Amino acid sequence: MPHSGGRKRLTPMRCHGAPLLRHDDESADLPVTEHATPIEHFITTQLESHHDRAAFSCGNAPLDNYLHDCAVSDATELSKITFVLVDLADQRTMHGYCSLSSTSIQFGAVPASVTKQLRISRHRAMSATLIGRLAVSNRLQGKRIGEELLFDALKRAYIAAQQVGSALAIAHAIDADAERFYKTFGFVALENIAHGLFLTTATVAPLLRLKVALDGCTAARQI
Ligand SMILES: CC(C)(COP(=O)(O)OP(=O)(O)OC[C@H]1O[C@@H](n2cnc3c(N)ncnc32)[C@H](O)[C@@H]1OP(=O)(O)O)[C@@H](O)C(=O)NCCC(=O)NCCS
């Protein structure tokens, strides 16, 4: 899988130099280019009717179908919120998406060392934010867009957890390959939940800070 841009390895998390994506309310007055697009010119924003859902394909039918058929109604019902990645120069064409929702998982799904650290009672379910789906357009896979979308989702999950508590960020990977993608960034497998992985929300803040710190270490990258 071809990748551009610099690489840095940090144990146990790996972060690669590129700024956190801007949310749509943080995107003011960035210049746009006609050719290759720097990552700084992409934003994430909540899915709306003007986004061209039908044209999006990541090559995985269930993920494409969810976006085409269900994402808007789920957002209307506030059951799952989908965020889409667009270029500031063309805010109709989607290059990636991610859906977030609240969930809970049983105590036994995470290692005892984690529940002890979080002081969770053995009888309580654990609050969590679910990264249910994450996908990058076929045309842009392998260019670290997935990494950027994941960090964007973690940033949103962390901000939301400060208002409505959420002990874990959970990813539901679509298959074993996707599971490996999440593990690249330090996610740990949940026990007895196929393709389920987690990070504690408390570890998200230092991870985001680390990513921001690395932004200054690499040259701007083109996609
Ligand atoms: C999986 C997906 C989101 C990754 O996005 P991407 O932009 O192609 O990946 P990135 O370039 O950001 O890769 C970041 C890291 O993840 C790894 N990675 C990417 N896709 C992977 C895969 N399918 N399996 C294992 N590792 C993968 C990369 O090798 C890279 O690791 P490195 O730091 O060791 O080089 C994207 O390929 C995709 O949309 N695939 C189809 C849908 C899917 O599988 N979604 C998964 C979540 S449900």
Task: Please characterize this protein's 3D structure.
The protein has one domain (22-27, 36-215): 3-Layer(aba) Sandwich (Aminopeptidase), CATH 3.40.630. Helix content is 29%, strand content 24%. It has five helices and eight strands. The two termini are 14 Å apart. Bound molecules: coenzyme A.
What shape does the CA trace take? Answer: globular
In total, how many beta strands?
Answer: 8
Number of helices: 5
Mean of pLDDT: 83
User: Order of SSEs, N→C?
Assistant: EEHEEHEHEHEEH
Name the CATH superfamily assignment: Gcn5-related N-acetyltransferase (GNAT)
Percent strand equals: 15-25%
Q: Helices and strands: which structural class? A: alpha+beta
Task: Please describe the structure with a list of short key phrases separated by commas or semicolons.
globular, eight-stranded mixed beta sheet, Aminopeptidase, binds coenzyme A, 5 helices, 8 strands, single chain
Short description:
Helices cover 29% and strands 24% of the residues.
Give a topology summary.
Layout: E1 22-23, E2 42-46, H1 61-76, E3 81-87, E4 90-105, H2 112-118, E5 126-136, H3 145-161, E6 168-172, H4 176-184, E7 188-189, E8 196-200, H5 201-215
Parallel strand pairs: 1-2, 5-6
Antiparallel strand pairs: 2-3, 3-4, 4-5, 6-8, 7-8
